[in-house]
Amino acid sequence: MTAYALAQVHSIDPDPDVTEYLRRIDATLDAFGGRFAVHRGKFETLEGSWGALGLILIEFPDYERARAWYDSPAYQEILELRTRHMAADVIIAEGVPVGYRAEHRFEGHPA
Asked: Any coiled-coil ranges, and where (predicted)?
């Protein structure tokens, strides 16, 4: 089942380290089948308060590969380039199978 790494970005200190991180992150995704689905494009808050500058969503073939990417030596090597200059909440979430419907959540189907 597809999985996602999601980052809610709160602040960015423009620093050459951030540019270096962005230059190198794509190569860390390749071995795990990851790809950017959303990368701080146009968005608007429809409900509640969204205190973030942007959203980053990276898609993976499954949860295990998403987690393996985050823990990989290649990603860990560049992670500090981001964390020193960017405040963000980051999670990994499992998607739902093709054909899933919200009503399944209450019918004993895995969600």
From this structure: none
Distances (CA, A) of 92 to 19, 71, 85: 23, 12, 21
Model-level pTM?
0.87
Q: Can you tell me which residue has the tokens 């071995």?
A: 31
Q: Report the alpha-carbon distance of residue 94 to residue 107 in Å, rounded.
A: 19
Q: Is 18 exposed, middle or buried (0-12, 13-18, 19+ CB in 10 A)?
A: middle
CA distance 97 to 111: 8
- pLDDT tens digits along 7-25: 999 999 999 999 999 999 9
Rounded CA gap, 47 and 44, in Å?
Answer: 9
With 0-12 CB in 10 A as exposed, 13-18 as middle and 19+ as buried, what is 107? exposed
- Rg of the chain, C-alpha, whole Å: 16
- Tell which residue, 1, 8, 10, 34, has the closest CA to residue 91: 8
